[in-house]
Write a structure and sequence with these properties.
about 55% helix, two-stranded parallel ribbon, 2 domains, binds manganese (II) ion, elongated, alpha/beta, binds guanosine-5'-diphosphate-alpha-D-mannose, Spore Coat Polysaccharide Biosynthesis Protein SpsA, Chain A
């Protein structure tokens, strides 16, 4: 028995699967093969049944009905863990994942590292996709990577090698995705459990025979990715931080307009411009303090002592954010000559990112 198991889910792959297994054999890959077939109507399962009688290292797991790529892998990995394999590979049946790269993938994979056959690192390529499929995939990958903060270039890759240590640590029954979102979900789990992600380039060649099962899966997968993202602490904090920012902008304006009405009656000797400057200073201070309190209590849930030090840091960051806001607005409107509304949007976004990142990494470090 080999230490490595290649898990290949199949649904209607009769013209691919036997050829793929024989390519694995010819290239003398030191691995066993487990095909997980969802009762393919085209008889893929029967073909592999026959072959597995002749090849001791080829196994098949039959499942009753098509239940999705993720479910097939979960079943395959459980089977492999029971049999004590050390490394478990996920691979498509349709030759999109190059057999030649298997040795490199297996090498890269170790007790602390999940290895990825990657289309989007240097040396990686995609061959045979039409432009729209390419953009869909690139877009899906970009959104997934950003939302889940996945530290790999190819977050939706299907060609991977997982150490048994990782698959044992996570509870395979808790995986959310039944379909294609399984791929990024596994990377997220790896990252969150302290495993490294490493990539080796592949040339992904579009299938020659049979058809992709990915159509109609996009919306379902996207929903799962968004759901997973919202459960990530940093993104949740970012959303809350944005809400706090929006509320306190209203506080800022509200107080400013109120004071502009009230103050002239109190300080009758001051001119309107001076009154406005005073009103602005007060409204900014109040809204900054109120944002600090809301972010401390709600966004970052800080229970630390040293409120003073935290508050000072928060104000320093906010001052930086204020400058960035203004400079960006100036650059976008005066220099680039864009309309004010774009200046406002871009400047607010720039300042928000700055404020969030610095507060997260400095003011509320470690929370
Ligand atoms: N058992 C089982 N059940 N197998 C399935 C199912 C299912 O419900 N759905 C798909 N498969 C099998 C296919 O037979 C194939 O062997 C493999 O899973 C990949 O399916 P494809 O339909 O060929 O996927 P793709 O080429 O569109 O997508 C590939 O690239 C994506 C990224 O662009 C896969 O590698 C994906 O995992 C990857 O996310
Ligand atoms: Mn495919």
């Amino acid at each position: 028995m080999n230490q490595t198991l290649i898990v290949i889910p199949t649904y209607n792959e009769k013209d691919n699967i036997l050829r793929l297994i024989s390519a694995i054999e010819q290239k003398k890959i030191a691995a066993d093969v487990l095909v997980v077939d969802d009762n393919s109507p085209d008889g893929t399962g029967k073909l592999v049944d026959e072959l597995s009688k002749k090849r001791s290292w080829v196994y098949i797991l039959h499942r009753k009905e098509k239940a999705g790529l993720g479910k097939a892998y979960i079943a395959g990995f459980k089977w492999g863990l029971e049999k004590k394999y050390k490394k478990l590979i996920s691979m498509d049946a349709d030759f999109s994942h190059p057999v030649d790269v298997l040795p490199a993938l297996i090498d890269l994979c170790n007790t602390k590292t999940v290895a990825i056959g990657s289309r989007y690192v240097k040396g990686g390529k995609i061959v045979g996709w039409q432009l729209n499929r390419y953009f869909n995939s690139w877009g899906a990958n970009f959104v997934t990577r950003t939302l889940l903060m996945i530290k790999a270039k190819d977050a939706t890759a299907g060609f991977k090698c997982y150490p048994a240590e990782f698959l044992k640590v996570i509870n395979l029954d808790n995986i959310q995705s039944s379909g294609y979102a399984f791929q990024p979900e596994m990377l997220l789990l790896a990252q969150n459990n302290g495993f490294k992600l490493r990539e080796t380039p592949i040339t992904f060649v579009d299938r020659q025979v049979g058809s992709s099962k990915i159509q109609g899966e996009l919306v379902k997968s996207a929903r799962i990715v968004f759901g997973l993202a919202l459960r990530q602490k940093t993104l949740r904090q970012f959303v809350k931080f944005g809400i706090v920012g929006a509320i306190n902008s209203l506080v800022d304006w509200g107080i400013f307009y109120l004071l502009k009405i009230v103050l002239p009656g109190v300080f009758t000797s001051l001119n309107l411009q001076t009154i406005k400057q005073i009103a602005k200073a007060i409204s900014f201070t109040v809204s900054a303090i109120s944002s600090y309190i809301m972010n401390r209590k709600w966004t970052f849930r800080s229970t630390r002592s040293g409120v003073g030090r935290e508050a000072v840091k928060f104000l320093v960051v906010a001052t930086g954010g204020f400058l960035i806001n203004n400079v960006t607005f100036y650059l976008v409107t005066a220099r680039a000559g864009w309309r004010d509304i774009f200046g406002l949007i871009i400047a607010t976004a720039a300042a928000t990112f700055w404020n969030f990142i610095l507060n997260k990494k400095w003011t509320f470090k470690g929370l």
